[in-house]
Amino acid sequence: MGPARPPGRDGVPPDRHLHVRLRPFTLSGAPGTQGAPLAYCPRRTVLDKLLVDAASEAGAEVREEFTVQEIVVEDDRVVGIRGRSKDGATVTEHADVVVGADGRNSFVAKAVHPERYNEKPQLLCGYYSYWSGLPMDGRFDVYIRPARGFAAVPTHDDLTLVIAGWPFEEHEANKHDVEGNYLKMFDLAPEFAERIRGAKREARFAGTAVPNFFRRPYGPGWALVGDAGYNKDFITAQGILDAFRDAELCATALDQSFSGARSFDEALAGYQSTRDEHVLPMFEFTCQLATLEPPPPELQQLLAAVHGNQKAMDGFARVNAGVTSPAEFFAEENVGQIFAAASPAPAG
Ligand SMILES: Cc1cc2nc3c(=O)[nH]c(=O)nc-3n(C[C@H](O)[C@H](O)[C@H](O)COP(=O)(O)OP(=O)(O)OC[C@H]3O[C@@H](n4cnc5c(N)ncnc54)[C@H](O)[C@@H]3O)c2cc1C
Asked: Which atom of ligand 1 is nearest to the CA of 210?
């Protein structure tokens, strides 16, 4: 999810407010900014087609249903790929640089064995489905409960996405009854449980658990973007935004290299350091949330001070929407202002 375009564009309703329902209070803020006042949660089926069409219109040759089966390496340098379309013969393509934008199980990464760092194991196991008859009235609701978290957000076709997660330690025990465990979780928020009882599930459950890691995103003849280069739990829903940012940073670095403005190593090292610096605070925030453990006491105190302070709640909503870095929100000065606003005014 991320702040985006005008209301109703491509048929997805906007989210005006994010409600983070903690116990005992709810933080209710607007994630939008002046330039991008609304947020949207488009279906991937819609978003991905828009992206493919846009790439094609911009001049890229798009080959759908084409599987890369081999990375071609010569003298320790990636020089191309071998693969085939669904009904076609195997073809080999050569390139100055092969960019793996092929997800967290990246085929390119498996071939080049990049260094991995900041690794954390799977923390959370999440399942989602789409429901009709569950109107959200422009809200994105997040519920945090002991060892449980779930969220409901409107998407295309009058459907609401409901995603729910439990700690990864419970994966084995719960995987045989996903539906039962998913539904039971809503009893922790009785008003939501009642609303979803009146709704209809329109799709089968999908779900997974993902590891958290960074990969060095470049080497001789190759680069990685998106989940292929950096993956984290989906609890903060930042992956698509991060993949867009990576694509832009990587394309800029490659342009610098191809134009001779900087060497490949220098330009791509810049991509890596800019990426890491930008995403590390959100990575840490995400991994902390994904444990589904109670926040540390200092964070609990801060969230209590945020509650009721509209400016601070909007700021917190913007962190969750990926607009503001956690580093900025949790900076000493901002935290100090939030606590100062929450303190009772001195007597007299
Ligand atoms: C349960 C869940 C919920 C999520 N919810 C959100 C959310 O709400 N918001 C958000 O921003 N992010 C969310 N994410 C994260 C998001 O899906 C990813 O961060 C994002 O899709 C990364 O984009 P990408 O282009 O790097 O990789 P992907 O979207 O994984 O795309 C990789 C592409 O490469 C193709 N590919 C792979 N191997 C080959 C091969 N050998 N040959 C040819 N093609 C190949 C795949 O088919 C795929 O099309 C969620 C993730 C999960 C698991």
From this structure: 53
Q: Over 90: is that where the pLDDT of 112 sits?
A: yes
Q: Which two tokens stand for residue 219?
A: 């080497």
246 Cα–ligand 1 center, Å: 13
Per-residue pLDDT band for 11 (boundaries 50, 70, 90) equals confident
Which of 86, 227, 230, 250 for mutating ligand 1's site (highest number of atoms within 8 Å of CB)?
Answer: 227
Phi, psi torsion values for 213, nearest 5 degrees:
-165, 160
* End-to-end C-alpha distance for the chain, whole angstroms: 47
Quote the percentage of the chain above a pLDDT of 90.
89
The pLDDT confidence band at residue 348, using thresholds 50, 70 and 90, is low
With cut-offs at 50, 70 and 90, classify the pLDDT of residue 70: very high
Residues 6 or more apart whose Cβ sits within 8 Å of residue 47: 240
Among candidate residues 221, 237, 190, the one with its CA nearest the CA of residue 99: 221
Strand 139-145 versus strand 17-21 pairing type:
parallel
As given in the structure block, the two tokens for residue 100 are 């793996």
- Flag whether pLDDT at 346 surpasses 90: no
Q: Of all atoms in ligand 1, which is nearest to the CA of residue 1? A: 9
Mark residue 57 as left, alpha or beta (left: phi above 0; alpha: psi -120 to 50; beta: remaining). alpha
Structure tokens at 325: 């870095």
pLDDT at 72: 98
Mutate-to-test residue for ligand 1 from 50, 52, 69, 102, highest number of ligand atoms within 8 A of CB = 102
* C-alpha distances out from residue 168 to 210, 233, 236, Å: 10, 11, 16
Residues with a CB atom less than 6 Å from ligand 1: 1, 67-68, 101-103, 107, 126, 208, 210, 226-228, 234, 237-241, 243
